[in-house]
Description:
Layout lengths: L12 H8 L2 E3 L12 H9 L4 H7 L6 E4 L3 H10 L5 H5 L9 E7 L2 E4 L8 H10 L3 E5 L6 H14 L3 E9 L8 E2 L3 E8 L2 E6 L10 E2 L2 H4 L4 E5 L4 E4 L4 E5 L6 E9 L5 H19 L21 H16 L7 H10 L24 E4 L5 E7 L10 E7 L15 H8 L3 E6 L3 H9 L3 E2 L8 H13 L3 E3 L1
Parallel strand pairs: 1-2
Antiparallel strand pairs: 2-12, 3-4, 3-5, 5-6, 6-14, 7-10, 8-12, 8-14, 9-11, 9-13, 15-19, 15-20, 16-17, 17-18
Helix pairs in contact: 2-7
Amino acid sequence: MPKKGGKHAEMGKEMQAQCKRAKVEAACSPSVMSFENPDSLFGSLISPIKQEMFFREYWEQKPLLVQRNDPLLAAYYQSLFQLSDLKELCSQGLYYGRDINICRCVNGKKKVLNKEGKVNYMQLKKDFDQKKATIQFHQPQRFKEELWKIQEKLECYFGSLVGSNVYITPKGSQGLPPHYDDVEVFILQLEGEKHWRLYKPTVHLAREYNVESEDRIGNPTHEFILKPGDLLYFPRGTIHQADTPLGISHSTHVTISTYQNNSWGDFLLDAIPGLVFDTAKEDVVLRTSIPRQLLMQVDIADSTKKLSSLLRRLADRLENTRELRSSDMKKDFIMNRLPPCLGCDSDPLTPGGKLPKIDSKIRLQFRDHAIITVEPDQENSDEIRREMVYVYHSLKNRRETHMMGTEDDTASEEGASQTHGLRFPLSYLDALKQIWSSSTVNVKELNLISDEEKENLALSLWTECLIEVI
């Protein structure tokens, strides 16, 4: 196991000074989480830090430690997940690998101690107590409603998938070696205490997870103890390791993570093909042939000037257009994110209230859970494919599969048919934008030619629970 430092009380003044740069003592007790809207939820998560300050000084730049000493918030954090929850959760049919990993850091390496098949609670507790193994619980928002509420609001706030893992580590033990992640990380300390060490990144804003050796990472830039109610944020690429101190029965924390593969580079990979396709329709230069045998050449240095010239033409096109498509990233987000949290006992969403008519006034519902895209017609296999407008939404997504991926071909095939949404002719685009950009709109004032089209659009959206009649 890597050294833990083990001398928290004797930490030198130099280390304390370094830690203070990221540490913020709460001047007043923050209120328990506010679920009024996504903005208020994130504000309460990082309180007392203001959002403007957070994004100006910390986001993607450096760690933030918020130590609160607030019994009310500590009790709320503990309610999110605790060691005692495992017995009941195991009775629901958890599996090693899919739902739970058990591991321990041994000589700077992660040692996985998973058994096969279903998790037996008594065996899990035995490994925890006797082998000092860390229990890693994958995506607990599938089972814990309060985490569902938090992560659903955060997905609305960031416009990015938000996952979570719970880590329960016994005293005097460490689950993972020093490593960095490819996600932005928010850590909430739920039970006990955890000793953390953070190190200068070797890869800033990393795109991949990687383990780092002790002799490569140098001395910590930050070292501290997290207690219940405390919050820690650090950017992707931040090297970190954590252990439960001796004298503490165990530590439980939840790691909430976001912004995986959500960079400008990812957006360009997604959007540039559409930009090239649209530009080539109008610019004959992009339709001229590449040189003979270009694809057979090892070195294409002679063509780089031409490629640079074409990229500049694309840049000019981008400057003069307001349309830039990101269909795949948008669809991936909306298809895989959490549905709205309406409560565990709530019935599935069904259309309610009055049917929309031509003289109705309507209002968009669940704005943060729906997107509009323009794509080639997916239902037309003809050589000439018309462009259509698609409205995708996450109202019927399944919380039980959130962030779990597809583990076999059957799941993949089922997932492929689970896109929820509507398809309209391109002429409906302006009317849809009208609904999305207005607080309310009269059906008869929609930007469509006939009353029949206006009613059909409103009825289609109402059927998917995307609008209500007021």
